[in-house]
Amino acid sequence: MATVEKILSEHVTLEVECVDRLYLNGYIPLLATSGGLITFLREHLGKPIPSPAVLGQITSSFRDRVESFAAQEAIPLIKFERGERKDDRAQKLRREREVRAGVVFIGVAQEKAKTFSGRPQPEKGTGWFDYSRDKTVYVNHYYFYVDDEEFGPAFVKVCSYAPWALKVCVNGHEWAKRQLEKRGIAYESLDNGFLSCADPQALQEVCNSLGPEQIEAFLARWLDRLPMPLTSTDRQAGYDWRLSIWQMEVSLTQVFDRPVEGRKFFEEVIRDNLDLGRPDRVQLIFERRITQRTPGPFRTRVIQDGVSPSLHIEYRSFDLKQYFKEGRALRTEGTFRNPKDFNVNKGLSNFGYLQEIGRHINRRLLEVERVSQNCGLSAGSIQRVVQPTVTEDGQKAPGLRFGDPRVMALMLTLSLFTHLVAGFRNQDLRRTVAGLLGPTGPAYTALHATYDLRRLRRKGLLYRPPGTHRYVVTPYGWKVARFYARLDARVLRPALTALEGQSIVEPHPKLSRALAKVDHELDELIQAAFPSQEQEKAA
Question: What are phi and psi of 399, to 5 degrees?
């Protein structure tokens, strides 16, 4: 029988950990406030009256320089249509214009931005303006789609209005490909990843070497080559862009020797995780995103043809997912959308630390999946969980009765929270359990959550680090939670389904037939022991 452990240990031909897509915010620290902007206009540009007209002149000059640059270099300058997928347009133009180490095309789009707006303040004196960024407006943004010597396909997006924020998008896998080409190491691509490599160890070393220095060097190269709102003189005076992490994808790619092994992997994983709760936790992708507006009810099924299975786990702004990449590789990928969820600021200097956190989460998910098919517990362990107990220091720990809706929701929640490195809080537990109990279920308040956290901790299922209000699922707690969840999903409900002959899931055919035969034999025995009146008269 195929198991997750066997598939991953015997059928993986290449394993690569690498940063995938990386989105960065570029901002100018000296222009972050209205006072900084006025200083820029008065002292740096030498404008005694810091009028918004000066900002308009910079915007117009930037636009003219972009158009002139595109004409001189014979670079297509296109306007994105509203609602158009920019990535699709970019891929098409990249195929049509095979540019190496240059600008492929420039796109223009009107998008929302918080820009400075100036208002005259006559009460403060002639020529006095006050600036604020309290309004969101639609302004032109310029997308420079480039092919970089080091990073390959990438883009730099620049806002045409003050304070001229920019965004950078690069891909760690594409960077690794360029480094392998420089070293003369052969490889096969798998979309933006790797299918094979002549030297896997060298490939991993290359992926490990990507850091803030290479990313900052990328931005510096293109700031010198592309038209920008601010000149090199402005940047030398301190009005230069600094990068922060906006979105970062940390991936683990495991290539299977045969595509069928990847399908087996997902069948095993999905079968053990479909009953973890709501569709936004674990779902099959049918080329349709499931949102709160998607009509229900939902059914979870393993579909064999025409779909790509995908497992999603969300924690705040962090998204952990697994999917079958190009039908050949398992991609486990964690996406940071707000590093502060893990008590890390957004500075690019934290790139390495975030990468380690992401890799740890990916590995932990795989480890959970490896051992999830062996979560058996001894009779003594079950007794300690189900029955009330007393801790060594005399504290009472109420029992966790199997089948109780609240207890089952707690165990499903612990299964969901196992991967959280930083743990979870009372409100996280309360929100998830309440969602699992549903609007028609019993109310679940903060006091209920506090009571449950206390008994889970005293049972040894949770650990609370000293001085914090966060809880971490222990290895023992994970085994108990998975035992409850799997016993309910794989034994109790299918058995009840077979007994009742109807349910939202298809009953097990062999068990159903066997139980039907038992029922028939019992009926005959009862009839023989207690004959009906008609049978007695006939006798």
Answer: -75, 160
User: What span, in angstroms and rounded, lies between the C-alpha atoms of 125 and 4?
Assistant: 74
Q: Indicate whether 121 and 202 sit together in one domain.
A: no
Which segments of 74-136 does DSSP mark as H helices, in order? 86-96
Angstrom distance (rounded) from CA 462 to CA 443: 23
pLDDT single digits (tens) 258-310? 887 777 777 666 655 544 434 433 333 223 344 455 444 333 333 334 456 67
Backbone angles phi, psi at 247, to 5 degrees: -150, 135
Last residue of a domain, one of 341, 374, 407: 374
Q: Is 163 helix (H, G, I), strand (E, B) or coil?
A: coil
For helices 493-500 and 509-529, what crossing angle results, to 10°?
50
Q: Are 145 and 106 in contact (CB under 8 A)?
A: yes
Could you tell me the CA-to-CA distances from 328 to 190, 202, 324 in Å, in that order? 8, 22, 7
Nearest-angstrom CA–CA distance, 16 and 252:
6
Residues 419, 239: Cα–Cα separation, whole Å? 42
Domain boundary among 105, 128, 163: 163
- Same-domain status, 137 and 79: yes
pTM of the model: 0.68
Q: Which domain holds residue 423?
A: 379-492
* Residue 195 DSSP code: E
195 and 156 in a common domain: no
Q: How far apart are CA 221 and CA 202, in angstroms?
A: 27
pLDDT band of residue 6 (cuts 50, 70, 90) is: confident
Q: Cα–Cα distance between 380 and 532 in angstroms, integer? A: 49
Note whether 370 and 420 are same-domain residues: no
Say how far apart CA 245 and CA 254 lie, in whole Å.
26
Residues 17 and 33 in one domain: no
Which ranges in 372-508 belong to alpha helices (H)? 379-386, 405-417, 426-437, 446-458, 475-487, 493-500
CA atoms 427, 430, 435, 439: torsion sign: negative
Helix (H) or strand (E) segment spanning residue 382: helix 379-386
Burial of 519 (0-12, 13-18, 19+ CB in 10 A): exposed
**Bond before 163 cis per omega within 30 degrees:** yes
Q: Record the tokens describing residue 134, joined without a space.
A: 């309290």
Check: CB of residue 407 under 8 Å from CB of residue 413. no
Residues 164, 133 contacting (CB under 8 angstroms): no
Q: What is the mean pLDDT of the chain?
A: 83
318, 400: one domain: no
For 211-264, the DSSP string reads: -HHHHHHHHHHHHHHS--SS-HHHHHTT---EEEEEEEEEEEEEEESSHHHHHH
